[in-house]
Amino acid sequence: MKSEENTEPNEPLKNKIIKGLIWLPLLVWRFFIRQFYRMQFRLNHQWRVKEFIFLNYWVLLSLAFVVTILNTTLNKSGYYFAIPSLATELYISENTLRTVSIFVGIVFSFIVLSFNVFYKYFGRFAFVQFFTSKYIKFIFTLFIGDMMLLIYTCGYLKEGAARDAYGDSLFIFSIIVSVVLVLSIIPTLILLLRSSQNRDNIRQLISQFNGDWSISYHVNILWKDGNENAHLQRDPITLLIEIGTAAIKDFDRTTIVSIKKGCLDHLKKMHADYPVQQEIHPDKFYHKLNELTRNLFPVAIKERNENAALMIIHFQLELEEFYIRNFKDFNPTQQSDHHYDGILFMVVMKEFFLKALQFNEDGVSETIISTLRKWWTLVIDVYFPAVKYDYPKGERFPTDKNSFFVGSTYYELNNIFELVFTYKKLFLYKEIALFFGVLNAEIVSSKNTRNTVVHLLQRNGSYLVSLFQKFITLTDSEITSSVYPFGHGTTQELIYIKSQVPLQYELDVFEYLFRNGKLNAYVINIVKAIAYHTMARFTEDAGNKKALLSIIAKFDHLQAYVKDDASDTQKETYLLLERYLGYIQEWMPEYKIKDEDVLQAVSTALSHFGFKEKFTKDLDKKGYIIKDVR
């Protein structure tokens, strides 16, 4: 029994070892195959070794073949290989020195070409970075070293009284170095030309925004104890503005992408490193990046480079998103009541929007409105829950910073959106309607307190109504879903927030459209759908009864404005109101509505439509204008 107990636990291990030995050759084979293809990829695609091979093998083989034939057929003395005489060594060394000197001009021409390429892509950064290239240092050092070695070799051989081993070794070494120099010229200059257009130079430039930059800034700018122009000329942001400007004019998308990604990556790195290194606060770089975008965007608009303009807008949004998600760390003065106010972002977006409108960049304008929506959604979903913002409901004029932030933001958003009417770009109102419509849903679904949600809905609704009324007065087009941002948000608010504030805003717009002769079947149908929604959830909350009564009362209120001598459009609207109110009454049994107040209200309202038969006869003779929606 003991022997069995001792052997049983070892059997699985033995099996594993045996299986491992069986599979070992296959695993080793797979490992080498994987390494082979990995090295092949690096050689062909990363290092691109073939580009450095500038010799033609067929020419070399042809020459070698001819020499071999001549040596075989005509050379009667046999093979000969020996170190040449002293005079021959001296002759070869002097001619090699002259030959190498000729290559200086070739190398200088390649360096000038590389410098021009570097300057084209990176502007004045070429004077800072180009001549520190390791390839330039390598080729110049090798040239100088080889020429000094050849001069020394020639001098030693010429002055030497007799041939010795040291002189022979100098001769052989100098010839080897000269051959290496000649063979390395083309590959080195290819690498130099590659590096001249490598966008990694942008990352190197951005990385110069570090502790050394901070010292230079304090000495030259703040303390006025140095050369202010010298600091500004070498400032990374100044150089990035110049590089970005040139890239925009050349429609060089790759450079713009490199600037965008490099700046964001460096900001994230600074943010991660600051608690440990305490080198330079990321808030400083954040403001410098805003300076960068504010300088590049007008250039993109002026040059009609829409792609560059859109990338700058997206860059601005990504920058602000990182700031919002980490706003507590962007507090260089360590204020106890530090909060996010969004002022800088709003200023930048207003500048962008105004510039886009002035140059008729409609696609860019739409993107800016969309960007503002994404930004404010981010604030609602991320920032307010993070600071646990709870709107002080009992205060008539709240003085807390977050409430002021909400009020000032909607005020500035309203000013920005009113530019659409100033520049008569009414088609952009579709984006504005989408802005408020999406925000209504986002506010309801956010994780904020009910007081905050209701306050945001009130702000959102009041400015929406104001802008919608201005749009209505300026347009003659039919009201459709693309410009009517109500309905869906109202039902969501009734379900989750139990608030009728958005409904009241919608009913105000409903009446405004009626008074201006713009009320159509689509809008009436939306309000009817809300009534259906309240009936479907009638027993869940007492607020649904109030909402339904408000809708019925609004229908009754509007019919009273229509007189016997109404226009044909008013007559059609009157009949639509009666018809859709009838639909509401018709579906009440389906939703099991038995409340006496509601039933009495809808019956009374329908009884007030006394002109139904007369208007129907009048319009049957003339025809109808408004399209009905069922």
TrEMBL record:
Keyword list, A-Z: Membrane, Transmembrane, Transmembrane helix
Species of the source: Mucilaginibacter robiniae
Phylogenetic placement of the source organism: Bacteria, Pseudomonadati, Bacteroidota, Sphingobacteriia, Sphingobacteriales
Sequence intervals crossing the membrane: 17-33, 54-74, 100-123, 135-158, 170-193
Protein name: DUF2254 domain-containing protein
Recorded superkingdom: Bacteria
